[in-house]
Amino acid sequence: MPRSPVHGTRLDILEWLKDPAAHFPRQRRVDPVEHGVHAGLVAAKLGVSCRAARTHLGLLTRLGLLRATRIRRRTYYRRDEVRIAEVARMFGEGWQARAPFPE
Fold this sequence. Notes:
Blueprint: H1 8-16, H2 20-23, E1 37-38, H3 39-46, H4 50-62, E2 66-71, E3 74-79, H5 81-92
Antiparallel strand pairs: 1-3, 2-3
């Protein structure tokens, strides 16, 4: 499995989680917008095992692009819009190298 954070599958997951109600079936007791979507639903949509889906979700969580919330025995994932905006802003600036100290 590719380890790049910009892997197409991970971009798909981020896109789907923009509007989870439109991309995933309804969940009992949990609001997908407020709490997120559990790994089983992501796995089913991707057509992969839960383990593979959790690997993708875990990387996105460690990068800070997703927030994980544990409810009962499941972990639900939702986008961290603030962090995503920060990353988008960095890309927009072109990742220009900056001197670590003022000259």
